[in-house]
Amino acid sequence: MAERFDAIVVGAGPAGSAAALTLARKKFSVLLVERGRAPGQKNMFGGRIYAWPLFDLLPDWQKDCPVERLVTKENLAFLAEDASLGITFDSPKLAEGKAASFTALRAKFDAWLAKKAEDAGAMLITGIRVDDLWREGGRVKGVYVAPEDRVAADLVVIAEGATSTLVRKAGLKADLEPREVSVGVKETVELPAETIQERFGLAEKEGAAYIYAGYASLGLRGGGFLYTNKGSISLGLVISSEDLARKKLEIQDVQTKFRMHPAVQKLLKGGKLVEYSAHLVPELGRRMMPRLAGDGVLVAGDSAGFLINNGYTFRGVDLAMASGMAAGEAADAARAAGGMSAVNLAAYERSLRARNVLTDLETFSRAPLYLKSERLFDVYPRLLIDLAERVYRVDGAARERLVDSVLKEAHASGVSKLALLMDLLRGARSM
Amino acid sequence: MTEAAAKTGIRIVVCIKQVPKAQELQVDPVTKTLKRVGVPSEINPPDQNAREMALALREKHGGEIVVISMGPTSFDESLERAIAMGADRGYLVTDRNLGGSDTVPTALTLERAIEKVGQVDLVLCGEETTDASTGHVGPGIAGHMDIPQITYCSAVDIAAGRVRGVRMIEDGAETWEVPMPCVVTVDFGCNRPRQPTLTGKIRLKRGGLITHWSAADLGLEPAQIGLKGSPTIVAKVDTVQLPSRQGKIFQEEPTIAVSLLLEALRKDKVIP
């Protein structure tokens, strides 16, 4: 006698838990299966979550959500080997209303969200890896763990992250290509809360976010990030796996150089490295998306490639939660329409659009290609820093106008005026 | 649903104990007893082999697996784990009066619990526990029930109401055949215990599979159990100091360090 549920959600990350919570509220019997011993155990990420979907999903989320710090300071820094050039946007408005973003530790945040799904009636089972979808006659019938261990359901929501094998086994997507993914690493460095506040110029609950370009990734496509948690700092890199392979570089070596950069060292001084983790990041957005719905199956979160990196914001968790909610709504609509067929589940795309998940992914669909230009990660950061040095250098030698400095630097970097202009235009159009 | 349930196949009871994890064993320097509080625990590893044997028998013959344990309520964890791994239901005998029991009252208590489950064909125990290593309890249960037993069994087969078991001895193997009901204690490491299943975890989450019994539920008098019912007297506990090791670390470049290590191992005749 096989166990049976209306819906099974695979993966208790932000996408899976949001889907399970939405489904449970719509009176589906829901099984939420997580591979790790606890939700969040298998996850890592830079640590910033854009809060907007939470206002819909859990209107009083601020009451008990494990927020580390509300981000009130955005920083963009270009690194050269021994210098850095930064822009800081410091505003309490960043933390206001639906536009708020906060830093969080995934082990805590994921556990919190999964608990909300459980409270709504979903059954959470941890420590089980789903091996395959249970299919009969081309239709998904449930999940398969091992012989004699399968559980039936009308709908399976795949939300098991970037490396999802179920999406591939379900025939919704071909194998991952190196160009589709980046490698992410993250180190957690412990520092007292007061030190963090003092060092970053923050009030007690305020946080800072940094994005680093240039030498951070040794000029490879990608970049660095730093987020302040309550009593720790998340520091990491996301780098094109294609570039790493081509340059025969190990990401941990790049990370070490990044961490040892004087501009970064200053921020980490006295901290204790307590954790190191690595993960794949889906990078091509709309261009690597699997089929999102099939007979009895939906795909949400990283498994669906829902990630936006347009160079200045890096979004994944918010899209994951929104897509989980959309999956729950689509299932509800499909049930009303008579069942979980692919045709009825096409409601998912509409729901994703209504939540601006697909729309935003389409708006920034050129960004991954634009951000593929190596000039952006190697030449321009150096150019900017050399320019800054030229502009701020007063040593008694004859000075020149700013525009001449720009053109001279561009020329010295081997970039033609035309290429510079083209890159600027393409950047404006895609970002 | 318990005692009077109509039965198909065989009913197997597996007795399990929760023990401190082998790698985490610590002896209290003052009381000289094993620290049991605040250390990570697990199902006694030989009991896992007994449970696995039960699962294989149920697959072949059908029926039901009941797990039984005696101890504090924290032992629920092990019963839950056993159910997640495929057992059907569990009973925990838990009672303050049982504290301090040695193997005599323990075997008596488990025997009473087995009688209360009723219609049991086969009782499986691990050969011994990793924390006390007496190997008394399985045979004690057989003694109290006055039924046959095969100890240190690595393989069993059931046919026509009889159990045929292979037990490993120093210089070979013996095969014994006994009628059911009987007790079999299971050789540590004789099979590979399977992992928890999704179905098992779902059944567990749905609840109602673990029942607690007190000593009184089993008709046990306080004088029969706990320290009062235990003839064992611990006269003295010695801890053995192992000679410290040299602990040399080869810090050279990996290729050089490895060859130096190999050289040192050859010199000491650890490897040829």
Structural class of chain B: alpha/beta
CATH topology of the largest domain in chain B: Rossmann fold
Average predicted confidence as pLDDT of chain B:
89
Helix fraction of chain A by DSSP (H/I, runs of at least 4): 25-40%
In total, the number of strands of chain A is 19
Low-confidence stretches of chain B: 1-5
Give a topology summary:
The complex is a heterodimer of chains A (431) and B (272).
Chain A: E1 4-10, H1 14-25, E2 30-34, E3 48-50, H2 52-57, E4 69-79, E5 84-90, E6 101-103, H3 106-119, E7 123-126, E8 132-136, E9 139-146, E10 149-158, H4 166-169, E11 181-190, H5 193-200, E12 206-214, E13 222-228, E14 232-240, H6 241-246, H7 251-260, H8 262-268, E15 272-282, E16 293-294, E17 297-299, E18 308-309, E19 314-315, H9 317-336, H10 342-345, H11 347-354, H12 357-363, H13 367-370, H14 379-392, H15 402-412, H16 417-430
Parallel strand pairs in A: 1-2, 1-10, 2-7, 4-12, 10-17
Antiparallel strand pairs in A: 3-6, 4-5, 4-6, 8-9, 9-10, 11-14, 11-15, 12-13, 13-14, 16-17, 18-19
Helix pairs in contact in A: 1-3, 1-9, 9-11, 14-15
Chain B: E1 10-15, E2 18-20, E3 41-43, H1 45-61, E4 63-70, H2 76-84, E5 89-93, H3 103-117, E6 122-126, H4 137-145, E7 149-159, E8 162-169, E9 172-179, E10 182-186, H5 198-206, E11 210-213, H6 254-267
Helix pairs in contact in B: 2-5, 3-4
How does this structure look, described?
The complex is a heterodimer of chains A (431) and B (272). Helix content of chain A is 35%, strand content 27%. With 431 residues, chain A is α+β, with helices and mostly antiparallel strands. Chain A folds into three domains: 4-66 and 106-173 and 290-355, FAD/NAD(P)-binding domain (3-Layer(bba) Sandwich), CATH 3.50.50.60; 179-282, 2-Layer Sandwich (D-Amino Acid Oxidase, Chain A, domain 2); 370-430, no CATH class. In chain A, strands 3, 4, 5, 6, 11, 12, 13, 14 and 15 form a nine-stranded mixed beta sheet that branches. In chain A, strands 1, 2, 7, 8, 9, 10, 16 and 17 form an eight-stranded mixed beta sheet that branches. In chain A, 51% of the residues are buried. The model of chain A has no long low-confidence stretch (mean pLDDT 87). By secondary structure, chain B is an alpha/beta fold. Chain B contains six helices and eleven strands. Chain B has helices spanning 45-61, 76-84, 103-117, 137-145, 198-206, 254-267; strands at 10-15, 18-20, 41-43, 63-70, 89-93, 122-126, 149-159, 162-169, 172-179, 182-186, 210-213. A nine-stranded mixed beta sheet of chain B has the order 9-8-7-10-6-1-4-5-11, sandwiched between helices. In chain B, β7 (149-159) and β8 (162-169) form a beta hairpin. Chain B starts with 9 loop residues before the first strand and ends in a 5-residue tail after the last helix. Classes of the chains: A alpha+beta (431), B alpha/beta (272).
